[in-house]
Amino acid sequence: MGKRKRLAAEKRKEDMKSIYIARLNNVPTSPRKMRLLADMIRGVEVSRALGMLKFSTKRDSALRLEKLLRSAINNWEQKTNQKAEDATLYVSMIKVDEGRTLKRLRPAPQGRGYRIRKRSNHVTIQVDTKDEAKK
Known about the structure:
Layout: H1 3-17, E1 20-27, H2 31-41, H3 46-54, H4 59-80, E2 89-98, E3 102-107, E4 113-118, E5 121-129, H5 130-134
Antiparallel strand pairs: 1-5, 2-5, 3-4
Helix pairs in contact: 3-4
């Protein structure tokens, strides 16, 4: 590996030490349904976001997103050796991307078949403290 590539890789590695992130791949719900919840908690404090997800009417997606948010909080605690209750954490970035689509056929009248698309998504959550956001 050349010097320039190595320096870039080391810089990227250092930057990743200050990013507290959690990912969930191939969630078997449509991205559109998950984005409704993601938009609801984007930029919100984590304790309030957990409460919003707990009492959301979209139960299946909310449970998965709540578990992922708890994982991101736990990643922050492990990297900084602090408790989440002491700091003011908030959801700095949440992204929902489209995953793979399973294509199925449903029998239809007169020997035809209707296509069913079973969609999935990938969710990425990043948490940060209010103090670091100001810097």
